[in-house]
Amino acid sequence: MSTGLIIALIVIVAVVVVAAAVLYLRARGPHRGAHLKRRFGPEYDRAVARHDGDAEAAERELAQRVQLHGDLRTRPLEHAERERYEAGWTAAQERFVDSPREAVAEADRLLAELAAARGFPGGGQYEEQLAALSVHHARHVDGYRRVHRVARIRVDGTHGPNGTHGTHGGGAGTEEMREAMVEARALFDELVRPSRHDGGDHRTGPHGTREETAAHGRSPHMPSLLHRRQTKES
Length: 234
What we know:
Layout: H1 3-40, H2 42-50, H3 55-69, H4 79-96, H5 100-117, H6 126-136, H7 141-152, H8 174-192, E1 204-205, E2 208-209, H9 210-216
Antiparallel strand pairs: 1-2
Helix pairs in contact: 1-2, 1-3, 2-3, 3-6, 4-5, 4-8, 5-7, 5-8, 7-8
C-alpha cells in the first residue's frame, strides 16, 4: 500500500471521527441541559445568570459539580448530635429578636458545621461545601448562600469577601437578615432530619406529616420566631 493511500485513509478516518463527535455532542447537549435543569431547578437559573446568560458555560459548571460531588455519601447523625444542632438553631432564632447580626452569624456557623458533620466538605471550604450541597440539596442551598453572604457583610458597610453591599450601602438590614434566616432554615431542616436511609421516620413529627410541616413553613422541632416581623433593629 502506497504512502499516499495510507495518508488518505488516515484523513478519511479522522474526518469520520470528528463528524461523529460533533453529531454526538449536538445530540447530547440539549439532553444534558434538560437533565441539569431538572436536577438543579432554581440553582440552574442562578448558574446561567452568573455566567451572563451563557447556558453552555453554566451547564459545564453544574456538570463538573455533579462529577466531583455526585457520589458523595452522607453520614447519618447520632440522636444526640441531632438534638444539639436543633437546640443550637432554636437558640439562634430566639437570639435574633435582640441581636440579629449575631444570630445570623451563628446560623451560618451552624450550617457549615452541620453540613460537615453529614459528610460534606468542611474545614472552612465554603465554596466547595456549597457546590457539594447544591448537587444534593439544590432547591434549598441558596438559603445557605444568602445567610453566609449576609453574615459576612460588615456593619460599616464595606464589602465582604464576595464583594456584596449591605442594605442602603450599610450593613444588612434586619428584614434582609430575617429573610436569610428563614430561607436558610429549609436547608437546615433537610440536613438535620433523619432520612429514609438513616432508618429514621422522616415523614411524621409532632405537628403532622413532613409535607404539612413544609406547607406551614416551620420545623416540628423549632418555634416560628423568625416569622414575627416585630424585631428590633440592630
